[in-house]
Design brief:
This protein is mostly helical. The protein has one domain (about 5-155): Four Helix Bundle (Hemerythrin (Met), subunit A) (Up-down Bundle). The chain is built from six helices and no strands. The protein has helices at about 5-25, 30-35, 45-65, 75-80, 85-105, 125-155. About 30% of the residues are buried.
């Protein structure tokens, strides 16, 4: 029987992999043009949400837990005048998920409770909480991506 640390790590890693698979299910069929098109005059494109998730996970987990040195420019995630091609954005997202899963697997039983701080994140007090909060945030945006992808398929 697996210990609690292994159970937590396996569960979180599997959940992040599920989120990534769900994102790909809806994003992969889109063309590069659809990926960057906003189906409404308000809100974001699917592409900008993918950049946002990549930046979010790279900062809150990569920089603050895995110590990758990532420096985030959150505003650019939504306003980049020359965004990357869809394939490049998805490759960056996939690399981020791989880094995240590796960071999860490296956590010892003591690491989960280590104090955590980050800009724009007053809620997470320890590493376990930031992994859970980021998982919820990622799935929230995948829900938006599902809706936008369905709208884009109709046009």
């Amino acid at each position: 029987m697996a210990g609690l640390n292994e159970t937590v790590a396996n569960g979180l890693a599997a959940y992040y992999e599920y989120v990534a698979e769900s994102l790909h299910k809806w994003v992969d069929p889109l063309t590069n043009e659809q990926f960057w098109r906003k189906p409404y005059p308000y809100g974001n494109s699917v592409g900008h949400l993918v950049l946002h998730l990549t930046g979010n996970l790279n900062y809150y987990i990569g920089a603050r837990v895995a110590e990758t040195g990532y420096v985030r420019n959150r505003d650019k995630e939504f306003t980049d005048a020359h965004p990357p091609h869809k394939d490049e954005a998805l490759q960056a997202f996939d690399r981020t998920v791989s880094m995240l899963v590796a960071a999860i697997r490296k956590q010892s039983e003591e690491d989960w409770g280590k104090a955590y701080t980050a800009e724009r994140e007053p809620e997470a007090e320890n590493r376990f909480q930031i992994f859970v909060r980021c998982a919820g945030h990622a799935y929230h945006h995948v829900g938006q991506i599902v809706y936008l992808s369905q709208e884009l398929a109709r046009t």
